[in-house]
Amino acid sequence: MTLKAPTHHISAKPGEFAETVLMPGDPLRAKSIAENYLENVRQINEIRCMYAYTGTYKGKPVSVMAHGIGTPSMTVHAYELFKLYDVQNIIRVGTTGGISPELKIRDVVIAMGACYDTNYINQYNLKGTFSAIPSFSLLRKAVESAESLGIEYKVGNILTTDIFYPEDKNSQLKWKDMGVLSVEMETAALYIVAAAEKKNALSLLTVSDHIITGEKTTAEERQSSFTNMIEVALEML
């Protein structure tokens, strides 16, 4: 199958995405980022409400696009952005559930690696176990950006899972004994696609709830108030 842009999932024309795309899961967070941080904004996608925008931040071009929930949605959009739109860098700006006692609500996590229980990697027919890691250049920029802004952060390993409601309620907590900080549903898949396409990827995450303490933020907070990770991402440009 020969792919070309626009696609069934992205209606933007070639050249309408910047080289760097920020990707939250929530379409309303994408809209909020575009409206509150970017200048000269234009909407370039609304298929399936996966809103995408391109504008500038401090004069530098940047795009923002929602990726939805889970590995399938993330990989479809990331693959097409890398493959068809010449996107070089995808920075996920999403939420994560804390499992480490070191974390508290609203902490920023920079994902240095992603353990996973998704089968997405199987299509590559590797004879071993692939390590899902980010691009070091983006990781270094994120740390430098956070420190320049005075924003506290944690760098470490996270877990990407395909299961939001596990039958074994303790299954995700077992990962904390291996130093895993938090759990979410997309990062490992993003890192795998980026590696296969020889592009760059990083996940900046905000702790929206904590599995141990039971604390959680509201949907409204997740859409509009997780500003620290967004500012870190934008200052990386």
Automatic annotation (TrEMBL):
Keywords: Glycosyltransferase, Transferase. Catalyzes the reversible phosphorolytic breakdown of the N-glycosidic bond in the beta-(deoxy)ribonucleoside molecules, with the formation of the corresponding free purine bases and pentose-1-phosphate. It catalyses: a purine 2'-deoxy-D-ribonucleoside + phosphate = a purine nucleobase + 2-deoxy-alpha-D-ribose 1-phosphate; a purine D-ribonucleoside + phosphate = a purine nucleobase + alpha-D-ribose 1-phosphate; uridine + phosphate = alpha-D-ribose 1-phosphate + uracil. CDD domains: PNP_EcPNPI-like. Phosphate binds at G25, R29, R48, R92, V93, G94, T95. The active site is at D209. It comes from the Bacteria. Residues 21-231 form the Nucleoside phosphorylase domain. This is Purine nucleoside phosphorylase DeoD-type. It holds the Pfam family PNP_UDP_1. GO terms for molecular function: purine-nucleoside phosphorylase activity; uridine phosphorylase activity. Homohexamer; trimer of homodimers. Its EC number is 2.4.2.1. SUPFAM superfamilies: Purine and uridine phosphorylases. It is an enzyme of class 2 (transferase). The record marks R222 as: Important for catalytic activity. The keyword Lyase does not apply. A purine D-ribonucleoside binds at H9, E184, M185, E186, S208, D209. Belongs to the PNP/UDP phosphorylase family. GO terms for cellular component: cytosol. GO terms for biological process: purine nucleoside metabolic process; uridine catabolic process.
